[in-house]
Amino acid sequence: MNEKQTGSTIDPGLLAGNRKQLAGYAAQHFQWQVENGVGTITLNRPDRKNPLTFESYAELRDLFHELKWATDVKAVVLVGAGGNFCSGGDVHEIIGPLVQLKAPELLMFTRMTGELVKMMRTCPQPIIAAIDGVCAGAGAIMAMSSDMRLGTARSKTAFLFNRVGLAGCDMGACAILPRIIGQGRASELLYTGRSLGGEEGERWGFFNRLCEPDAVLAEAQKLAADLVAGPSFANGITKTMLHQEWAMTIEQAIEAEAQAQAICMLTEDFSRAYHAFVAKQKPQFEGN
Q1: N or C, which terminus of the chain has less Cβ within 10 Å?
Q2: Distance from C-alpha of 210 to C-alpha of 219, rounded to nearest angstrom
């Protein structure tokens, strides 16, 4: 964007509530690192295959919410430590306490977990999940909620809610998963709770591609770096439209995209790309 759009002439009082840096954020329940515009979230309980707790659910929800105002994070990588992505909600720290709760408190919990998905879908940064090993329950939901997924041949993704006596309609799974792999295939996974292997997941379109286990994180971070090098504002618009157009007619989507693209044409990224193209072509014409 140009100087006015980057905020150098905007009243500091407006900036205070709408712009922030997250490189210095000290995560309490996972690892968080920002480098060259890429924020990496590492679920870091490898001895238990990186399960979630009430606290990590809430902190993840809040961090993805804060990313809306981050000026130093242009893409996000989500990964698990120790050769597994995430085994879902911790049996002892979440499942055990839940069976003791009454309906109002249970609804409080399920709404909180749903908010995590909402925040992942509405933060402007593309999210790339680097998935190796176990990716189950809430872990599968976080993978599903990411914008792109890199997997490994040994990854095992399971929406196993029915295995614990629950419906497959958890955290938006019945809305989002069919849009990724199709209604029939999503139905199979949500009804049976079976594991989706890496190669099958790639064939079905759940994974964008497969990587070697020791390279999946590096490949995800390279993809994120490529996105950071591109038009960040426009990437955010693309993510927004991919999400919002689920509920639009074709006519509404075309009009919404016309308005969105016109806004992108006002950015410095658009002007810079044009002038870079002209500069690249000029020597060819001068040589003739």
Answers
A1: C
A2: 10
Q: How far apart are CA 269 and CA 258, in angstroms?
A: 18
Which pLDDT tens digit goes with each residue over 21-48? 999 999 999 999 999 999 999 999 999 9
AA letter at 89: G
- For the record, the structure tokens of 212 come out as 């070697």
- SS3 track for the chain: CCHHHHCCCCCHHHHHHHCECCCCCCCCCCEEEEECCEEEEEECCHHHCCCECHHHHHHHHHHHHHHHHECCCCEEEEEECCCCCECCECHHHHHHHHCCCCHHHHHHHHHHHHHHHHHHHHCCCCEEEECCCEEECHHHHHHHHCCEEEECCCCEEECCHHHHCCCCCCCCHHHHHHHHHCHHHHHHHHHHCCCEEHHHHHHHCCCCEECCCCCHHHHHHHHHHHHHCCCHHHHHHHHHHHHHHHHCCHHHHHHHHHHHHHHHCCCHHHHHHHHHHHHHHHHHHHCC
pLDDT of residue 1: 40
Give per-residue pLDDT as tens, 223-256.
999 999 999 999 999 999 999 999 999 999 999 9
Q: Residue 232 has which token pair?
A: 């960040």
Residue-wise pLDDT for 107-142, tens only, equals: 999 999 999 999 999 999 999 999 999 999 999 999
d(CA 256, CA 242): 11
Per-residue exposure over 34-57, b if at least 16 CB sit within 10 Å of its own CB, e if not: beebbbbbbbebeeebbbbebebb
